[in-house]
Amino acid sequence: MAGLRIEGLRKGFGPVEILKGIDLDIRDGEFVCFLGPSGCGKSTLLRCIAGLETLSDGEIRLGERDITDAPSAKRDIAMVFQNYALYPHMTVAKNMSFGLSLNGMKRPEIEARVQEAAEILRIGELLHRKPKQLSGGQRQRVAIGRAIVRKPKLFLLDEPLSNLDAALRVTMRAELNALHDRLGVTMIYVTHDQVEAMTLADRVVVLDKGRVSQFGPPLELFHRPANLFVAGFIGTPKMNLLPGRVTGATGETVSVTVGPLAMDVSLAAAARVAVGETVTVGVRPDRLRLARGGAGLPARITLVERLGTEAHVHLVLEDGAALTAITEGAAPFMARQDVTVGADPADVHLFDASGAALPRRLDSATETLLAQGSRGFAEPRQQEEHA
């Protein structure tokens, strides 16, 4: 196994620069997701790591080895693509063993590796079938098995579940988590689906326009987004963002107003904003409070999506700004109803005029959860191996 270090990585195509100075240190045994919208550079970054693209600048190290200019076949990396890319005329066993045969590995070792991978992925009964006889989920397992038999130091997965239906994606997410726990190898997973990133990764790299916007554990990104881009991208439905103005700033307390609504927000560090400055106020949908009258922002409900255990309530403020609130499924709200909207100051995120987050003060339970999540799996696994 080996960690991955990327320093000053740049990649351009002609005059267009796609990756604009990427620095990452991925620990040995971590499961890391590259997350971002289309065009942010996540697949290009993965291809650079795999050796499928030539860098414009920078360095990539796998363990202690500099692989910046190494050919793809010599990097000790296995890649699983969105397209299964299985040979239709070969059996499952042949598909999994073909690369090993080309490398001159002896037949007994090849057979042992194929059997081991088949047991891990529970596809032993499929080894004599051909791809056309398999379901989408089975084909994806074969593609992953083809990577496992190589026993690489690094797995690269480029949106491997995007061709599967919703139910199968949930199942495969759980299987990928179990596979990572069992193999203990470093994995990098590219996705635009934040649910996949939040449920699979030890840490997530959020990319925006070719730059790393934030790199950290999933819950850190959710509870302490570094900037407006991450705040708006992480979370479904996305965070509600409204313009506010600072009316007071003393020590670690900032007083802000949003329309007629005023609140005092406690920070985790001294405030770096001044009275009169414009800030952006963010509140997660599940933290908005709706009431029929009273203090708050006047709003009208435009749509209620009832999902059973919860409901998504879509609202519009008097100035035309749109908000979304999450309530209990039986919440008695209806479309075209007038309500007031508020929030507990402890649930408010603040962002300065540049879009950078002001450090939030969290409750002790959330702080403990974040501290536990930041450890990842590498340390516990090593402890188990040496126990």
UniProtKB/TrEMBL annotation:
Superkingdom of origin organism: Bacteria
A GO molecular function held by the record: ATP binding
InterPro entries referenced in this protein's UniProt entry, alphabetically: AAA+_ATPase, ABC_transporter-like_ATP-bd, ABC_transporter-like_CS, ABC_transpr_MalK-like, ABC_transpr_MalK/UgpC-like, Mo/tungstate-bd_C_term_dom, NA-bd_OB-fold, P-loop_NTPase
Domain ABC transporter stretches: 4-234
GO cellular component: ATP-binding cassette (ABC) transporter complex, substrate-binding subunit-containing; maltose transport complex
Keywords: ATP-binding, Nucleotide-binding, Transport
NCBIfam families, alphabetized: PRK11650.1 (NF008653)
This protein's name: Sn-glycerol-3-phosphate ABC transporter ATP-binding protein UgpC
Species this protein is from: Neotabrizicola shimadae
